[in-house]
Write a structure and sequence with these properties.
Elements lengths: L12 H55 L9 H50 L15 E7 L3 E2 L6 E8 L5 E3 L7 E6 L2 E5 H4 L7 E3 L4 E7 L18 E9 L2 E2 L3 E5 L2
Parallel strand pairs: 2-11
Antiparallel strand pairs: 1-3, 3-8, 4-7, 5-6, 5-9, 9-10, 9-11
Length: about 260
């Protein structure tokens, strides 16, 4: 082709074909460059995200390490055995020392109660209840019996009566007025004849009657009738009479007295 050829004149088909191939190659290069650029951009972004993820993972691991930095490592079997042995070794002297201390203190502790008990035991037999702490003898405490020196009395014979009273309980009690509290009451049928305490009231102190102890009081009847007054000298008539003894208000069984003359 000459230099003076018209550039706008129609070209041969081979020229158009070469131009299309060149244009296609340029288009392919441009596409490849665009794809490479996009891949590079995405690769850079993923690298930064991986770096940040790695940084956050390392930060979290460091936080976990710091959070558990105060915890001690789990003891191994050998360490546990050594600790148990050291603990038992340290406990044995303490136990032996406490046992020794208790043995040393036990004689004194055992001696202390016996020492305190001795005065009590020695004082118990000799200690006696005071009269203020005692109560008056009652029917539950006393047994009263009355006896006469004879079964019958002739003229000029006065009945002699004996009153015995026994404390049958296990505790001492008080007889009010002592032996002067003994009374004799004599009747003939329903009629009152004689009462000893009515005309023989003597002042006397209370008397303690020990458990199981007995006392006896003697009373003589002069065969007068004092139901009419203590100054009466009216003698009784022959007949049957009943006498009853009383101590602290507790009565005996009646005893029959026969007066024949």
């Amino acid at each position: 082709m000459s230099e003076n050829a018209d550039p706008f004149a129609p070209q041969p088909p081979e020229v158009y074909r070469r131009r299309r191939i060149v244009a296609l190659l340029i288009l392919v290069l441009i596409v490849l460059l665009i794809i490479g650029l996009i891949s590079w951009l995405f690769g850079r972004g993923s690298g930064s995200s991986d770096t940040s993820a790695a940084a956050s993972a390392s930060a979290s691991s460091s936080q976990k390490t710091e959070a558990f930095s105060d915890f001690s490592q789990r003891a191994t079997a050998s360490a546990s055995a050594s600790e148990s042995a050291s603990a038992s070794a340290s406990a044995e002297p303490t136990e032996s020392a406490s046992a020794t201390a208790s043995q040393e203190a036990s004689p004194e502790a055992s001696a202390s109660p016996s020492a305190s008990a001795e005065p009590t035991e020695s004082a118990s037999p000799s200690a006696e209840p005071t009269q203020a702490a005692l109560v008056a003898c009652t029917a539950a405490d006393l047994k009263i019996s009355l006896t006469a020196d004879r079964t019958s009395y002739a003229a000029g014979q006065s009945p002699a009566l004996a009153v015995s009273y026994t404390n049958t309980s296990g505790n001492p009690c008080i007889v009010t007025g002592g032996a002067n509290n003994v009374d004799i009451n004599i009747t003939s049928g329903p009629a009152q004849v004689y009462n000893y305490a009515q005309c023989n009231q003597l002042a006397a102190e209370n008397a303690e009657l020990a458990a199981g102890a007995s006392q006896t009081a003697a009373v003589s009847w002069n065969r007068t009738i004092n139901a009419l007054g203590c100054n009466s000298t009216l003698p009784i008539q022959p007949g049957y009479y009943w006498a009853t003894a009383s101590v602290n208000g507790v009565n005996s069984q009646p005893v029959r007295i026969i007066v024949t003359g």
